[in-house]
Amino acid sequence: MTLLVVLFALALLAGLSSAAYYLPGVTPNSFQEGETVALKANKVISTKTPLQYEYYDLPFCKRKKTKSKAENLGERLAGDSVTNSPYQLHMKKDESCVVLCQKVHKKAEIDMFKHMIDQEYRVHWLLDNLPVAVRNDELNYVSRGYPVGFMASTPKKKNPQHYLFNHVRIIVRYNEVAEAFEGTRIVGFEVVPFSIKHEYQDSQANFNKDTTKLTTCNKDSPAVFNPEKFQAVEMKSEEVVYTYDIKWERSELSWPHRWDVYLKGNPDDEIHYFSIVNSLMIVLFLTGVVAMIMLRTLHKDISSYNEMQTLEEAQEESGWKLVHGDVFRPPSFSPMLLSVLAGSGLQILAMTLCTMVCALFGLTSPDNRGGLLTTLLLLFVFMGSFAGYSSARIYKLFNGKEWKRNTMLAATFYPGVMGLIFLCINSFVAYHGSSTAAPVTTLLALMLLWFGISTPLVFVGSYFGFRKDTIEVPVRTNQIARHIPEQVWYTHPAFSIALGGILPFGAVCIELFFIMSAMWLHQLYLVFGFLFVVLVILIATCAEITIVMCYFQLCNEDYQWWWRSYLSAGSSGGYLFLYSIWYFASKLNIEGFVPTVLYFAYMGMVSITFFMLTGSIGFFACLWFVRKIYGAIKVD
After folding, report:
1. Contact indicator for 101, 61 with CB cutoff of 8 Å
2. What digits encode the pLDDT tens for the residues 14-41?
3. How many CA atoms lie within 13 A of 536 on its CB side?
4. CA torsion angle for 275, 281, 282, 286 (degrees, to 10)?
5. All residues at 6 or more sequence positions from 17 whose CB lies less than 8 Å from its CB, including other chains
6. Residue 89 and which of 155, 225, 441, 529 are 20 to 30 A apart at CA?
7. In angstroms, what CA-CA distances link 607 with 577, 602, 604?
8. What are the residues facing 570 on neighbouring strands?
9. Mapping DSSP to helix (H, G, I), strand (E, B) and coil, where does residue 154 land?
């Protein structure tokens, strides 16, 4: 088994290295010379706060008719909608110092710009589904989005001032291969921002963007970097003239590789590959060692128990066989809740596996914004029958009688907890005017998915689960519960639960760093081949470490393993939340009460989901293990 996993991982690695990030399922657009190319305004975001805004939440130049549009549910939930911009681009037609508009910003708008500059917000555009980027020539990589402005001191102003980027040089790279396709394809989209305090002739006359002539830049004199003419935003009222250049450059880069420059992103990305391979080797080696120890030890135990001939020999024995009459006794604390948690965790696991398969086949490419979140939501909804069926079968094993209540709880518990946290988050971001606030129509769509699709599927799964025969157990349960001997400190439930989550968390902690960077530092994450391997390792690790902990518990004649098997693996969710605290303190610059609350609320949702995912893996692994070992011994 270990060899198969290694070979599978190596095959994925080889496939990733040779595929070079080709994105299937996306049709290229070809343009003719002079054809209009739409520049879409997307959002304004920062790494210092999870609060994001739509482009026109800021007082930029805008068209008369602008309406934000989200193409799918994921875009709407992520606040990733797009709208038309006033910038006019025509294929292969260069422009210089085109006046966009002139605005006089009052104090409220000035304060907004200053806040955006202080929080390091960046403006995001889209051109032919390519995000705008700013190139760093020294490190040879690009950053998505360009800053709203910057803080600096100038020869005239010794104290740092706020300056606004009001001029952009738009650089569009295109590719033409007459033998392969007709027209021109866009393969690059970059911006060079400038801050220019524009001056124009006859400043006393009314400004007209079509007739007023600028003296700071024009068609014959392009914009230049001049610290003495930066556009400050410090006064109670500031006149700002917005302008732009357009430059078209021919490129030999082919269309399938146009995302490569964005995927380089962080100069330290190579560390990711070495770290994940190292983690993979360590975990696979540990998995093999644990499996070998367990198989040899269990084989010896089962052989010795089956060879007992006398009553005296049986009485002298101690260990897991002595609790055979109690090992399948239903848990004393809330068996219904445990069955619901196990079923919901299985639903999350099925959703995760299907999402990984979709991602591996390129169905969640970066061109399809919001696609990953939409896929997760829809797959979770359609996996409702898994939760209903598995929770019903476990609850029936526990001799439960309130099947209606169990089914309703399976349909509402996890979505209800997530929905309550989401509504609290939504009220926070809506109060602050963030674009991530879900509108009423989106909330109604989520409710429809929950009660119109997921809940009926849970009921269908529960119906078939309760109709099935009770899960067979190899031994009978005694009427009187056996006394559990006093346990030593290292077998205490709190210690074993805390210990059980370390290894599963350790299997994913390196990959988690890159996922967190994608979530909070807005970096692209597309190495789903590695992530799938890590998921397989996580499943194997959760199952094996929980089986080991359960075996030691039964050897100490403690038969109350039901809840502990779930919590031992599920405690990795607690470690994930602790990791998020460390990441917040050491890697992020989030400031303010509301952004902090939002961060920990989102990470709380992720941690709860991870807790239920890993807990259910451990629970079902232990159930299989206990049935297997007690079915292999002779019991009178």
Report:
1. yes
2. 344 333 344 444 678 899 999 999 999 9
3. 18
4. 160
5. none
6. 225
7. 6, 9, 5
8. none
9. coil
